[in-house]
């Protein structure tokens, strides 16, 4: 995302370099909120388990916890530049961040499994192809 905002023509009037992380964080939050909005709307539209399996929300819950875990650690804590040591210091921050990334990656893999196992393959079996 480093080169995303550098292609804008209005670079003279606004200094994007200082606000790049803020803009990226806001964009990620908006996309995450939109995903939850869509999944809640689908759950309301199809309340029966036969139409939409509600256990599929588990991937979203795990991804939300991972999102919060990753964003709770600052770069200074990972590098060791932080003023406070915290519970385990730099090592604890790195372990916390690693667990957050593992949860996020695991929820991504599980959601792809649900997509293909629950919808793509199931649709091909029902249509006889």
TrEMBL record:
Carries keyword Zinc?
Answer: no
Q: Where are the transmembrane segments?
A: 23-44, 56-75, 95-121
Q: Name one GO cellular component term.
A: membrane
Q: Which UniProt keywords apply?
A: Membrane, Transmembrane, Transmembrane helix
Give the source's domain of life in one word.
Eukaryota
The entry's localization annotation reads: Membrane
Q: How does it sit in the membrane?
A: Multi-pass membrane protein
Q: Keyword check for Membrane, yes or no.
A: yes
The family note in this entry says:
Belongs to the UPF0220 family.
Query: What's this protein's name?
Result: Transmembrane protein 50A
């Amino acid at each position: 995302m480093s080169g995303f905002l550098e292609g804008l023509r209005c670079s003279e009037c606004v200094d994007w370099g200082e606000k790049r992380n803020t803009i990226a964080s806001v964009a990620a939050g908006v996309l995450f909120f939109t995903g939850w909005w869509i999944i809640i709307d689908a759950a309301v539209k199809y309340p029966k388990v036969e139409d939409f399996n509600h256990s599929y929300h588990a991937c979203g819950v795990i991804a939300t916890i991972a999102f919060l875990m990753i964003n709770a650690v600052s770069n200074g804590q990972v590098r060791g530049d932080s003023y406070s040591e915290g519970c385990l210091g730099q090592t604890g921050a790195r372990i916390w961040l690693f667990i957050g990334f593992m949860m996020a990656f695991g929820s991504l893999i599980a959601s792809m499994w649900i997509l293909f196992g629950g919808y793509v393959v199931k649709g091909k079996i029902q249509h006889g192809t």
